[in-house]
Write a structure and sequence with these properties.
180 residues, Rna Polymerase Sigma Factor, Chain: A, Arc Repressor Mutant, subunit A, globular
Length: 180
Amino acid sequence: MEDDEAIARVKAGQPEAFQHLVDRHKDRVFRLVRDFIFDRHDAEDVAQEAFVRAFKHLRLFEDGKPFLPWILTIARNLAINQGKRRRMSLLPTGEELSGTPKSESPGHLSEVRELAARIEAAAARLPERYRLAFDLFYREERAVKEIADELGVPEGTVKSDLFRARALIRRSVELKNVEA
């Protein structure tokens, strides 16, 4: 069963068809959430909440559009909000960075973490279109062609969106450096 068919069935009163969407996309949703929330149990809860919200709002989903970008956007936003509510860092903790070479000075590690936090914050502020391409390419490590196929757009559009996303992030990070 394709996503479009499952969505049509749910909208037609067969809620059990939503399970197809969950089964098909749960791993990608979880991986995306896990990039933001480092606790496995919390990440599982947020991923599940993303599917609950998608189910509740499926009537608003525009027919003919790909489901994956929509559910990933929901999941990403929930993960960011979860992090804000719990004041979780968007970066690994010191424990998770234990594999960092011992030759790095604490000051250097602090600068790297600060830069990574600014990049994460800038990525979170990207327009949805650019943020989605950015997430699929960098977080999901998907090929441009695969992203284009999934989003139903030409490869050139994906490349352009990635270029613009990187430019916006670079500009934001550079402005923060000037302000500091």
